[in-house]
Amino acid sequence: MSPFIQIKIHARRLHGDGQPLMGKMDRNWPPGCRVTGHGPGLNRILILPAMILTIGISGPSAADEDVRQLVELPSNMQQHMMSNMRDHLAAINEILREMGNDELDRAAEIAETRLGMNSLNSHGASHMAKFMPGEMQTIGTGMHRAASRFALKAQEGYALPAYRALSEVTSACVACHAGYRIR
Q1: What is the rounded average pLDDT of the residues 159-169?
Q2: Is 145 in the same domain as 100?
């Protein structure tokens, strides 16, 4: 197996600054990375050493004590929260699929209706919040706001800035799951 992972990058709609993509693709990559493909409008391949992608993926081992704060919820609220989080994950998966198909408007719609500020009523956020520590509420609200910002960015039609905005959504998920547990 190759020690490199290839990521196909479409050479259109990656930058919103109006600059041609040529040249931008060939600089500012981490050491050991390279980009192949030539000519405007052609697909390019970003080749990353596999070890770059594994940095930070490993978390605590199963033998480590779980030091996250336990948030005690009634059983029905636990189920409700878990259902919401599974839907959030499914929504992110759908967003990524739509972005991969160059359907940024559809990705924006999914983000706003399923994750953004317009989704709060459908998730029952107001009755869940009273059980959450203040910082957990802040992280959760931050995730919903980030999803709405992503939706606006995706509607602009440029994938790279939209992917950056989507990482703010997933960063909130990571922060919450790193600090809190319900079981």
Answers
A1: 97
A2: yes
